[in-house]
Structures
1.
Amino acid sequence: DAGVIQSPRHEVTEMGQEVTLRCKPISGHNSLFWYRQTMMRGLELLIYFNNNVPIDDSGMPEDRFSAKMPNASFSTLKIQPSEPRDSAVYFCASSYTSGGLGETQYFGPGTRLLVL
Amino acid sequence: DQQVKQNSPSLSVQEGRISILNCDYTNSMFDYFLWYKKYPAEGPTFLISISSIKDKNEDGRFTVFLNKSAKHLSLHIVPSQPGDSAVYFCAASALGNQFYFGTGTSLTVIP
């Protein structure tokens, strides 16, 4: 079975450009999470969706960040405009939750973003 | 503020010896804890979990210990193997809500 799929795997862009990261969760999973990994803060949760509905976006650092989940099999994380401090690895994860969100999450391979 | 802390960014262990990775947390409401393992250029993968109703959970060479009074979690790997070299993240959640991750500990097992 395919795991969580993320694209692109690497992205290099210039400051001020729009960046769109994409995620396809595992089929049948109903929760989707976007994380950012940095050396200083480890894995930070940016936003999560349950049944395609954004539940908590308090981790989104600024208005420059936005995320959508138009259907159960696709989500995007957009940064507009991008800044050098956004450089990090962005992970998407999914899980099946029947109640709370304490179930194991399955991570994609990540998108390594470099903003010059 | 980090609710889950891994104070050792790196650890080196000889093959065959025990690896002990530590994790501290501040939120007493956390009731479910996990360890994830991450290889370079890959996403984290689930390794082992423990509920707050237990103080130990074992799976093969991996054992997680939970000390609720100290708000401390540890992962023991015995015996350590070179393939265990990776970054290990601990994570915690409260009442089925979102997970909070630590900053990770990079383990190197020396052959």
2.
Amino acid sequence: AQSVTQLDSHVSVSEGTPVLLRCNYSSSYSPSLFWYVQHPNKGLQLLLKYTSAATLVKGINGFEAEFKKSETSFHLTKPSAHMSDAAEYFCVVSERNTDKLIFGTGTRLQVFP
Amino acid sequence: EPEVTQTPSHQVTQMGQEVILRCVPISNHLYFYWYRQILGQKVEFLVSFYNNEISEKSEIFDDQFSVERPDGSNFTLKIRSTKLEDSAMYFCASKKFFGPGTRLTVL
């Protein structure tokens, strides 16, 4: 069965410094992986997705993620954090053939001025 | 850009009452989903719907829950007799795209 593990429940950074949100996956086949962002009291917005094309995936708002099969990782990064990036971030894996999504437990990103 | 819409945005109900949460998915998509997120917890899969029938459901989706697509556009989630623990955000999804959610509060 597919699963994802988000290694940090909370990450705090200063504005303008890099962001790293870590995610490891478990899958018996080449997975489809996603990052979603949820701002307070808002819905789930798709940041980016990996579907076996380029291993470095660029998303919205300057975020990107790199698929590393050897490390079974799909970490989310951003070179320079902005105050508006403060939110909950979910790493997600998709079930094959059904589009059913399996969510990680989330990482809360705080950005300090 | 097409989007998933949900109504109402917030529903307050008394324990034991029936609620119906509504969704309008993206029109040319074939798979639809309901997920829920209890406050402070992760998003959990409830049910998937394909070709006008349930294709998969989780353990959470017991006999109190039902889904249907009564017409060509709406996709509904019904909870027959709500419990306190049903309080959560309920998200409808059309493939990878989520609606804004309905916050259900059971008193």
